[in-house]
Amino acid sequence: MNKRVLLAGESWMSYTTHVKGFDSFYTSVYETGEKWLKNALEEAGYEVEFMPNHIAAEKFPYTVEELREYDCVILSDIGANTLLLPAETFTKSIKKPDRAKVIRDYVLEGGALLMVGGYLTFSGVDAKGKWHDTAVQEVLPVEVLTVDDRMEHCDGIRPVTAAKHEALAQITGEWPEVLGYNKTIAKPETEVVVTVGGDPFIAFAKYGQGRSAVFTSDCAPHWAPVEFCEWSEYNILWKGIVDWLTK
User: Fold this and answer.
1) Residues 76-118 pLDDT 10s
2) Which pLDDT does position 34 carry in this prediction?
3) Which of 32, 135, 25 is nearest to 83 (CA)?
4) pLDDT tens for residues 63-79?
5) Which 8-state DSSP code applies to residue 198?
6) For residue range 140-174, what is the model confidence (pLDDT) as tens digits?
7) Backbone dihedral region for residue 105 (phi beyond 0: left; psi -120 to 50: alpha; all else: beta)
8) Which stretches of the chain are DSSP H helices?
9) What is the CA radius of gyration of the chain?
10) CB 179 within 8 A of CB 225
11) 131: closest CA among 112, 108, 104?
12) Which end of the chain is more exposed for a tag (fewer CB within 10 A), N or C?
């Protein structure tokens, strides 16, 4: 039986106002950015369940027992508020389990967690990602900032291998450039394997019986440009990370 991965996040809705002289009209679009990462893991033999942000708000597991159905949980461009504010709590003041604590306990009891960067993971744009003040922070290899942590590099910035690690043993040669990342601070127990701009890019740690990792840039556009997503070693990268996490 294939190992199961829960990928939460990587979706957004855009609402545009078009003004043409006296008149205006509106268009809306729903988009997702999971396909590159999902395809990479499925090629590696994993069964991936994609849970877009608006679905994760209500359907992301509320108990450790439910999370144990997955060998790895990936949080990618999903803000903490999406899990901390279920509709029943926000609209009716009904108590619900804190799913950040559920993720923490899942890791401590042997689960695997990967946080992938974006405008709403780590701290994110205007610090709205808000993961620092959650229980998830306890099982991340890096300290999340409490301010807007985006490091924008529209001219491109190249990650650099800082240390050998079995998860990335198959990665050879130069890394392709990215267009930005979330700035974080490595914890003392962390193995920072790849850096970008002197900050953690890929890092690993163990907590309790489980394992945790971070990838502080996008897994898809816009921070991950076409050159990164179509990099010959893109699939090898994600296979190595998740293989290590679920070992």
Assistant:
1) 999 999 999 999 999 999 999 999 999 999 999 999 999 999 9
2) 97
3) 135
4) 999 999 999 999 999 99
5) T
6) 999 999 999 999 999 999 999 999 999 999 998 89
7) alpha
8) 35-43, 53-59, 64-67, 80-84, 87-92, 99-108, 226-229, 234-245
9) 18
10) yes
11) 104
12) N
Structural domain spans, the chain: 4-11+29-245
In this prediction, residue 138 has a pLDDT band, given cuts at 50, 70 and 90, of very high
Task: Provide CB contacts within 8 A for 227, sequence distance 6+.
Answer: 176, 177
Specify whether the CB–CB gap between 21 and 87 falls below 8 A.
Answer: no
Structure tokens belonging to residue 10 = 């990587």
Distance, in Å, from the CA atom of 114 to the CA atom of 75, rounded to the nearest integer, reads 6
Centre a 10 Å sphere on the Cβ of residue 212 and count the other Cβ atoms it contains.
27
| Cβ atoms of 32 and 221 closer than 8 Å | no
CA distances from 152 to 144, 167, 180, 212 (A): 17, 27, 4, 25
Residue among 114, 73, 130 at smallest CA distance from 241: 114
Q: What pLDDT does residue 163 have? A: 96
Amino acid at 188: P
Q: For residue range 170-227, what is the model confidence (pLDDT) as tens digits?
A: 998 899 999 999 999 999 999 999 999 999 999 999 999 999 999 999 999 999 999 9
Q: What is the rounded CA–CA span in Å between residue 70 and residue 50?
A: 12
Write the CATH number of the domain with boundaries 4-11+29-245.
Answer: 3.40.50.880
